[in-house]
Write a structure and sequence with these properties.
alpha/beta, Single alpha-helices involved in coiled-coils or other helix-helix interfaces, Rossmann fold, Helix Hairpins, seven-stranded parallel β-sheet, 7 strands, globular, binds guanosine-5'-triphosphate, binds magnesium ion
Length: 365
């Protein structure tokens, strides 16, 4: 093979190197055609309703896009999927790094798909934009689930505020449900506000813990304990079993001190090992007991309705905020006013009023 252009390019292939035969020309053409052709909103919706995970992923990418041109299409996809959504249970899982969330979700998810469920795993992790590492880790921690035809795993949206990530995850839930997933697991890391955001989009909240060296309750934020419907003490295997049982007693005692929940549910504590799978079945049994109770006393429906109202307000707040802070000219002005306020030259309220006035004037122009 002689390449006439060799002298103009620093790159050239060695003579005799050919495409491997395993790549057929037809499939290359098919792939390039698909890549080039952006699916329409209807293509995406039809694909999702047929249970096509590739279309689901593409639609979620569209939702996550920060390109303003994608917004309208994303909204159409969500609107068309909405009538097919809602038929699921949504479970939030939280726990500090290393507690075994990924390993637990792998074991729990497999348990559920073996029972005939379709499981989608989404994440709310606003820090993932900084540390893409966890996604890589999860590929190995969730080896079986990743390959499972009845499971779908999607890492957290990144490069956004917590509010932004949370909204996108919530919209992704709708698409996953329309795609036929009936158990939605939302994972989050124990960082500040992300639990609150996840709590506001799930039906059931599970706190993963490990047995420590005694004083179990230390270091848990009261708010997180209050949110939990179930505390699972993971890594109850080998020498840890005894410690896990002790921790279970201690948590049970603590949970009884909290006021009763509106759901009528008394939060539970159980132990499991995500590695040996002992106790995984109990976690699902307890979770199902909760759903039976909450559906029979209508709490389930009432909570979802309340969450919808919450998201309406949240989305408005988030978008108004974004609109304000991203408006051209606001950032330098804000910086100037911040300095003036810091130096006591201007009252923060007057500064805010002036900035907002400027913002509204710009809108009208
Ligand atoms: N012995 C034992 N080890 C476990 C168990 N579950 C998880 N591990 C181990 O604990 C470590 C952390 O597990 P991960 O599943 O990555 O924990 P994670 O909570 O997802 O961690 P981050 O993604 O960093 O937040 C790994 O080395 C796991 O093998 C368990 O039930 N028993
Ligand atoms: Mg993990």
């Amino acid at each position: 093979m002689t390449n006439q252009n060799n002298h103009t390019s620093a790159l050239h292939e060695k003579d005799g190197v050919q495409q491997p035969e395993s790549i057929s020309k037809a499939s290359i053409a098919q792939i390039t055609k698909l890549r080039r052709k952006q699916p329409t909103a209807d293509d995406l919706v039809n694909g999702i309703l047929e249970g096509n995970k590739t279309m689901l992923s593409r639609a979620i990418t569209l939702i996550e896009s920060t390109n303003a041109n994608h917004l309208e299409k994303a909204n159409k996809v969500i609107a068309d999927c909405l009538p097919h959504a809602n038929k699921s249970v949504r479970i939030g899982i939280t726990g500090v790094p290393g507690v075994g969330k990924s390993t637990f979700i792998e074991a729990f998810g497999k348990h559920l798909t073996e029972k005939g469920h379709k499981v989608a795993v989404l994440a709310v992790d606003p820090s993932s934009s900084l540390s893409h590492g966890s996604i890589l880790g999860d590929k190995t921690r969730m080896e079986e689930l990743v390959k499972d035809e009845n499971a779908y795993i999607r890492p957290s949206a990144s490069g956004d505020t917590l509010g932004g990530v949370a909204r996108k995850t919530r919209e992704s839930i709708i698409l996953c449900e329309a795609c036929g997933f009936d158990v939605i697991i939302i994972e989050t890391v124990g960082v500040g506000q992300s639990e609150t955001a996840v709590h506001s989009m799930v039906d059931f909240f599970l706190l993963l813990k490990i047995a420590g060296a005694g004083d179990e309750l230390q270091g848990i934020k009261r708010g997180i304990m209050e949110m939990a419907d179930l505390i699972v003490i993971n890594k109850a295997d080998g020498d840890n079993i005894k410690k896990a049982k002790l921790a279970k007693t201690e948590f049970n005692r603590a949970l009884h001190l909290f006021p009763a929940k509106n759901s009528g549910w008394q939060p539970k504590v159980t132990t499991c090992s995500a590695i040996t799978k002992d106790g995984i079945d109990d976690v699902w049994k307890i979770t199902s007991d909760y759903f039976n109770l909450a559906k029979s006393n209508n709490y389930f429906e009432a909570k979802r309705a309340e969450q919808n109202r919450y998201w309406l307000t949240e989305t408005i707040n988030e978008q108004l905020k974004n609109s304000f802070y991203s408006q051209e000219g606001i950032a330098p002005l804000l910086k100037q006013y911040q300095e003036a306020v810091q130096n006591h030259e201007l009252s923060p309220f007057i500064a805010a009023q002036t900035l907002l006035k400027k913002y509204f004037e710009n809108l009208e122009r």
